Amino acid sequence: MFLKYETLESHLNKELASLYVLTGDEHLLLLEAADMIRKAARDRHFGEREILTVERGFKWGQLHAANNAMSLFGGRKLIELRIPGGKPGKEGSQTLQEYAAELNPDNVTLITLPKLDWASQKTAWVSALQKNGIYIEIPSIELSRLGNWISERLKKQNQTANKQGIDFLVERVEGNLLAAHQEIQKLGLLYPEGELGFEQICNSVLNVARYDIFKLNEAMLGGNRARFIRMMEGLKGEGEPLPLILWTFTEEIRTLLKCKTALESGQTFPATAKTLRLRGQREKLIQMAVNRLEKKDLQIALQQTAQIDKIIKGLRSDSWMDDAWDALMQLGLFIART
Fold first, then answer.
1. CA atoms within 13 A on the CB side of 204
2. In whole angstroms, what is the distance from residue 324 CA to residue 13 CA?
3. Locate the DNA polymerase III delta subunit-like C-terminal domain: which residues (predicted)?
4. pLDDT of 318
5. Which domains does the chain have, with CATH numbers?
């Protein structure tokens, strides 16, 4: 049974199932959800906790043994199974299907997984977990939702901030939700309840943003030039490898060029997106970029990637620029122009 993350707390107030599955890459929210389940188990007198981690050499018989063994204190038990790689293998797949079909009512089992790819979501072991347990996909907090998330967290500690303060916080913690949580907690310790001033926030909050190359592409495709510049400067400061950034830019430009060519030949965008396997947010961003860029612009941009590759390798380039970071910045801004 699927359950929304936002409804987990109210669900646990009413009942406690024998099996919970948490999957996602937002580590703070996954940790908080797991803590809620642990607390609910403790409140219902599940006094013992056993943790199993699937790593190299893991014996899947340990899971059945933990489920069948009586608690040391004769009470009920919480079993945590952690699968950090997200792929249990053939034996693990079979074991999980058997386990989900024969749950021990004296135990609560909590399984944690990273965000699963499309192929993994269609496997028999995942279907068995979804059918027999409470399956919760932990949501990612995208940039567009981060401001509201911060406001809600501040509200929980009886504090508020105006838009300027929230926007400042978003810039400082983007891509690092755990650090965002810590900075919000720090504001609660430093200042009393009520509205926080912009100066108070500036004096308290560190720049703990972490930038992701693939989020950089979102800023470029979406035409968010200010965010693109901020992220490029952050990635440069973190020493991100230039070839990797160039590769991601090149792949996006090639995709845009294929899309533009298909549209000019009479294909519809939905059909083109299906052919190119574009889904979700990326499909929307590609469409935005294709609508504002001409085919000749994309051809020029693709030629420029070859020149930047030469600059990175220390070879002679036809480009008037000799700094690869500057050249990548200008290329990205060219794609991001509106």
1. 21
2. 56
3. 212-317
4. 65
5. 5-137 (3.40.50.300), 143-204 (1.10.8.60), 213-336 (1.20.272.10)
